Amino acid sequence: MRPDRRPTASGRHRSRCSPERGRAGAREASATPGFTLLEVLVALAIFALAAVVLGATYVNALNAYEAATRRNGYSEDLRFARMAVLTEPDRNKVEEGGELDLGGGKRARWQADVASTNTVDLFSVTWTCAITNPARPEPFRTSQTFLLLRPTWSDPVERATLLEQTRERILQIQGTAP
Fold it and tell me: What is the value of pTM for the model shown?
């Protein structure tokens, strides 16, 4: 059976555009397939929203990549500057800080705050470093806190006091304290 012909109750076929169908048939015949303006606007809005989200994600990924690259670029320089603290036997020189030439026009300026702990010869060091690079407008700054075991930094009187306190704590734990 052809799609434009339908059987009637009497079994005869009639055309889609026959006068028996009236206005509804004419309206159906003149309708063209397609999208309404509202459907197109909704689709454009969804597309625009997806484009904004993807664009923002892309920009965030680029910023993160650039920050990671910059940090990795300074990791060797930081390691070199930190070695000045880790290998220095004199506590006063560490507390004064220092400046190092890193090559390529880069310079590192660092300082350290050294604090004694309750453990003999163990020190808490708060190390701050600023690396200036002529290729960047702002210096790269970092701060780290670490513990160092340095017998050469200990004050003999403070060391003797800490050793005596440790002895007393051990005796109390053992239950043999006087």
Answer: 0.52
